[in-house]
Amino acid sequence: MCADLSIGAGIPSSPEPALPQVATIGPSAQILPPPTNYHFPDGQANTYIVEWHLFTAGSATLKIESADEEQKVTAIADSSGVANVLYAVHDRFEARFDPKTFCSLGLTKHTEEGSHPRNTQVRFDHPRRKSVLNEKNLKTGETKQVENDIPPCVTDVVTGFYYLASLPLRPGNFYSFPVNGGKTAEVTRPR
Q1: CA atoms within 13 A of residue 113's CA, in its CB half-sphere
Q2: pLDDT in tens, 45-83
Q3: What is the largest CA-CA distance in the chain?
Q4: Going by DSSP bridges, is the β-strand pair 116-125/104-113 parallel, antiparallel, or unpaired?
Q5: Is the distance from CB of 103 to CB of 154 less than 8 angstroms?
Q6: How far is CA 158 from CA 11, 75, 143, in A?
Q7: DSSP assignment, residue 25?
Q8: For the segment 78-119, what is each residue's pLDDT rounded down to a tens digit?
Q9: What average pLDDT does range 164-171 have in this prediction?
Q10: What angle do CA 108, 114, 120 make, to 5 degrees?
């Protein structure tokens, strides 16, 4: 997963002091812990309507909440209307991360995309610097387990949204950080 995020690209500069045009987190992209005064938006739920060629294709909801010593993020995506007839999507994601470090601890996915239902669990073994993926194809019964290298701290495909929201975003800056969904860790540069 590779992407670039440029906040406010093309917006005329303000009279504020000049800031670097590229802000990379660390010598190589890394996850930084949240500031000590950062408060997670516990209980916050955001729902998005997904469109495809001017038709409503479905909805997606993201929710964050405290779960004991961890933070839990839940994401639900469901197709609807014509898109659901053409290619049904019903996905459920649950991610947990350490609120002191922003390092992901695990990710559980139940995905039903077209005729491909899968259950996936990803565990992040930070001491060994490995992600451990266990996946089962619910249609064929086929299973697989894969281990991949990860950096000392990595975020997952769901938690990454909240990590990005915790950063002091500035127009024109770029933000890079490692993301892992159970396969290879990629540096994401949201744009």
Answers
A1: 10
A2: 999 999 988 889 999 999 999 999 999 999 999 999 999
A3: 61
A4: antiparallel
A5: yes
A6: 29, 7, 23
A7: S
A8: 999 999 999 999 999 999 999 999 999 999 999 999 999 999
A9: 88
A10: 15
- Element (DSSP H or E) covering residue 169: none
Whether 129 and 100 have beta carbons less than 8 Å apart is answered as no
Buried b (16+ CB within 10 A) or exposed e, 31-45: beebeeeeebeeeee
Question: CA torsion 51→55→61→62, rounded to 10°?
Answer: 0
Residues in a beta bridge with 51: 56
The full length of the chain comes to 191
What is the pLDDT at residue 15? Answer: 42
Structure token pair of residue 139: 């249609």
